[in-house]
Amino acid sequence: MVSDIPGFAVTEVYTMADAAPRLQGLFAQLLGAPLPVRIHAWDGSQAGPPGAPTLVVRNRRALRRLLWKPGELGLARAWVAGELDIEGDLYAALDLLAGLVWERGDDARTLAQALREPEVRAAVRGLVKLAGSPLPPAPPREEARSPRRHLHTKRSDRRAISHHYDVGNDFYEIVLGPSMVYSCAYWPAPDGTLEQAQYDKLELVCRKLGLKPGQRLLDVGCGWGSMAIHAAREHGVSVVGVTLSQEQAAYARKRVADEGLTDKVEIRVQDYRDVRDGPYDAISSIGMAEHVGAERYLDYATDLHRLLVPGGRLLNHQIARRPQRDETVYNVDAFIDSYVFPGGELQPVGSTVTQLERAGFEVRDVESIREHYALTLRRWVARLEADWARAVRLTSPGRARVWRLYMAASALAFERNRIGVNQVLAVRTPESGASGMPLRARTWN
């Protein structure tokens, strides 16, 4: 904390309309390079490259947040509170800032080392003077109270899922559109419709699972019921969908009833660890495994293996991060953990495959659809921006800002290959070795 650094007491507050050029200079000192965006400060002053996207600092509280929580969490709090904004192309601004700001992290050791440099200490003193009151602003109310270490108990997972999904089905209708599918679509072409791309993704999953009339499908993390309804309607299977979200379950049950599929689809508010009515012929897990946690992942894979018949298939659709040289220093993204997916963890696709194999699965196919998620996220952002006023009314200004930032930043992360998404098809192959897979698997018969 800056108040603990000798010589950083607040002795002066600038009142001239020169905050923007001062900030440009101070940030250049702190970051070791000039900011590639313009700054528009609370006093009306502007500075920076002409024609570049503009970082709007609406209130000096944003600086206090950065001083008390340097790095991504401080920036996130200022953004959610509306103290920071971007004028111009949001994607271009995030792309320009990514290397200098968003990816630097919050490592306390790195900060301590930086503060040994006289230029950095001088820049921090300058920010303290601009920031005004030394007291830290309270975090925005949209911030989840996340423990330092996520144990992924049933209770904590239920609370985390509620934070993310129980924000109003009407809000998600704005973002997701009629398909109500909250995972990567599968695009035949970049200019296709979101609804068709989501239909194609659900159909792809069903074909990979080889679904046939009369079979039983377990849909883990069933969301608003889209996969369950598609599989029952298009492939004649009986489906059990499980979710930890009460709001999702109520919405999904109504959709099932409206489709006339109550004899085919059952939606439960249930943890996958409590499912005891196997075996199932197939399991789909689409965008759910990111919530499991690395320490629990083998248990997750083992539970799903137990629930399948011999020869049964699992389709695991999951976001992956790039591997690090030292996996012991991996830290969960501070913004995502505090505002989006509390307790969510990404792991490299190789780790996922290894854990599935350790649980007894035979992994038969891995398909990367990274570019498809970037396209999907850009469509979601466009839908949110087009109906912004209603989205704010349905949730809160802060919540809407969280979703806009995280989806836009995630789209760039997929485009730049910082993260990926993969469909892993695995089989509970029996001892006989007869997997039931076609010789040419990608025909998906």
From TrEMBL:
Q: Does the keyword rRNA-binding apply?
A: no
- Describe the family membership recorded for this protein in Swiss-Prot or TrEMBL: Belongs to the CFA/CMAS family.
Here the segments flagged for biased composition (Basic residues) are 147-157
Which residue ranges does the record annotate as region Disordered?
A: 132-157
The record's annotation in SUPFAM superfamilies points to: S-adenosyl-L-methionine-dependent methyltransferases
Which species expresses this protein natively?
Streptomyces venetus
Under InterPro entries, the record lists: CFA/CMAS, CMAS, MeTfrase_dom, SAM-dependent_MTases_sf
Recite the UniProt keywords alphabetically: Lipid metabolism, Methyltransferase, S-adenosyl-L-methionine, Transferase
List the lineage, top down. Answer: Bacteria, Bacillati, Actinomycetota, Actinomycetes, Kitasatosporales
Name this protein carries in UniProt:
Cyclopropane-fatty-acyl-phospholipid synthase family protein
Could you tell me which residue ranges the Polyketide synthase-like methyltransferase domain spans?
Answer: 171-412
Annotated membrane-spanning segments are: none
Any Pfam family from its record, for instance, is CMAS
